[in-house]
TrEMBL record:
This is Uncharacterized protein. Keywords: Plasmid. The lineage of its organism: Bacteria, Pseudomonadati, Nitrospinota/Tectimicrobiota group, Candidatus Tectimicrobiota, Candidatus Entotheonellia. It comes from Entotheonella factor.
């Protein structure tokens, strides 16, 4: 099954696992995330840094 870009609807060329979205070559990863999804992504990044012992 062909997938379409989650942002513009063109044929998707890649799956971005970090953001759980399909994207075409023209659209940047993460731009179609809702505010809630973005907040969760940022929180996960902070947790990862904390787990690695970053200050």
């Amino acid at each position: 099954m062909a997938h379409t870009c989650d942002q513009c609807g063109k044929p998707a060329t890649r799956w971005v696992d970090k953001f759980s979205e399909y994207l075409c070559a023209d659209c940047p990863a993460g731009a179609s995330l809702t505010d809630q999804q973005w907040d969760r992504y940022v929180a996960e990044q902070l947790e990862d840094e904390y787990d690695q012992g970053a200050p």
